[in-house]
Write a structure and sequence with these properties.
The chain has about 450 residues and is α/β, with parallel strands linked by helices. It has a domain of about 290 residues: Thiolase/Chalcone synthase (Peroxisomal Thiolase, Chain A, domain 1, 3-Layer(aba) Sandwich), CATH 3.40.47.10. About 40% of the residues lie in helices and about 15% in strands. The protein contains 14 helices and 11 strands. The strands form 2 sheets. A 9-stranded mixed beta sheet has the order 3-2-4-7-1-8-11-10-9, with helices on both faces. Strands 5-6 form a two-stranded antiparallel sheet. Helix 5 crosses helix 14. The chain is globular, with a radius of gyration of 23 Å.
């Protein structure tokens, strides 16, 4: 089934306008007609906004690196300049900016103001938001809403993180504080340990093996080697995970090993969205936002009842599919949040690409490779690119936009029409799913 155009907007429009037209019949007073016409004008404006599309007209990204030598201003400029060159517009065309990062990693308080000043994005309004690792996909949803409402015509989303500003130990401590600081993080919980719990549960219920997880990392390296923006560009072989002398096999949190985990990175991503009129005028190949879904879950593990998948991904995916009028079978290429190998495995199932427990069959048969039935993370994913918290979602969006425009180079999937981005914040605390299309 391909996308169906929703009809309820048209029904609501007619419901509001028909009484207006009837009231304009001969015999009604002129003053009443004037006020009714004003109401009709507002209804027509609402109709146009409701039925118009929102498109992405520019994308950009810095290289993701382990230690960026400059400031956060200079880091943000790397993604900004590529995005502006891609969109071929000037700073005067930007009506507003949404800046996204996880502030606990930033030394600069309220970095949005600093970046806006440096990039020349004042006096336009600048907004700052965070939802942990899903910050810049949340930023895209906010930008979509600002444009869809008619408040702004063109909005830029900048996601960044300079993880190297703090030490590895400080970074781990801040990640631990992503859990409830009263009830969970005092017990020493860390991101790898949380996802290891999910891996254990998935293995116990579905017979998933450590070798299945290793296959996901092997796939990631296949494409990370050809992605010039990625941190880790070396080949990974399945044999490395059984070699006790190889760093990839090193234990982290059983059953997860070094090779099952993504690395921190410094990086920036940038996306520009516009209303339909502007998108068509400014871009030869706009990519349209077809569906957006978002959800949250209890922060405490004791408040959850699913440990073989992420409920936020299921719910956000359900919303996005419904809004776009598509099903999982319509997705031609996907980017999922593979902070750990088990996270990608669960995403296959949560998004409907496989039945619960069937994710291992997809990776075993290479169906999620570039030439498979559902290509996933053919840019290397977080496992190869690295994970600069605030920039990750925007980087995923950039990949899908390039895919849909046929501009992904050696990573290009064959003739995709619809793509999906799955971006998770924390350990399934926040979930965003975005569906993009060429038409």
């Amino acid at each position: 089934m391909r996308r169906q155009t929703p009809s309820h907007h048209g029904f609501l429009f007619l419901k509001s306008v028909v009484p207006v037209l009837v009231s304009l019949a001969p015999g009604n007073s002129l003053s009443a007609d004037v006020s009714i016409l004003a109401g009709c004008s507002q209804s027509i404006r609402w109709w146009r906004l409701a039925m118009s599309k929102v498109g992405i007209i520019g994308v950009g990204q810095s290289a993701f690196v382990r230690g960026f030598p400059g400031s956060i201003r200079e880091l943000a400029f790397e993604g900004y300049k590529e995005c502006m060159a891609d969109a071929k517009i000037s700073v005067k065309d930007i009506d507003a900016t949404v800046v996204c990062s996880a502030p606990e990693y930033d030394k600069q308080r309220s970095p949005s103001g600093v970046l806006a000043e440096y990039l020349g994005l004042t006096p336009q309004p600048t907004f700052y938001l965070e939802s942990l690792c899903s910050s810049s996909s949340t930023g895209l949803k906010v930008a979509y809403s600002l444009v869809k409402s008619g408040l702004h015509d063109v909005v830029m989303v900048i996601g960044f993180q300079k993880m190297s500003e703090i030490s590895s130990a400080e970074s781990q401590e801040r990640m631990g504080r992503g859990a409830d600081i009263q009830w969970e993080s005092p017990f020493g919980t860390m991101m790898p340990a949380y996802y290891a719990m999910y891996a254990r549960s998935h293995m116990a219920r579905y017979g998933t093996t450590p070798e299945d997880l290793a296959l996901i990392r092997v796939k990631a390296s296949t494409y990370g080697q050809i992605n010039e923006k990625a941190v880790y560009r070396k080949a990974v072989a399945i044999e490395m995970f059984s070699d006790s002398q190889n760093p990839m096999s090193g234990p982290v949190a059983s059953p997860l090993r070094v090779g099952d985990c993504c690395a921190n990175a410094d990086g920036c991503s940038c996306v520009i969205v516009a209303n339909e009129e502007k998108a068509k005028a400014l871009s030869k190949k706009p990519v349209w936002i077809l569906g957006v879904g978002a959800a949250s879950a209890p922060v405490n593990m004791a408040g959850r009842d699913l440990f073989t998948g992420l409920a936020v991904a299921q719910e956000a995916g359900k919303q996005a599919y419904k809004m776009a009028g598509v099903t999982p079978k319509d997705i031609d290429v996907a980017e999922v949040h593979d902070c750990f190998t088990i996270a990608e495995m669960m995403a296959y199932e949560n998004l409907g690409f496989a039945e619960p427990g069937g994710g291992k069959d997809l990776i075993r048969s290479k169906e999620t490779y570039k030439d498979g039935s559902i290509p996933v993370n053919v840019d290397g994913g977080l496992l190869s690119k690295g994970h600069p918290i605030g920039a990750t979602g925007g980087s995923q969006i950039r990949t899908i936009v390039l895919q849909l425009r046929g501009e992904a180079g050696s990573m290009q999937v064959r003739n995709p029409e619809i793509g999906l981005v799955h971006n998770i914040g924390g350990v399934g605390l926040y979930g965003n799913v975005t569906i993009l299309g060429r038409a």
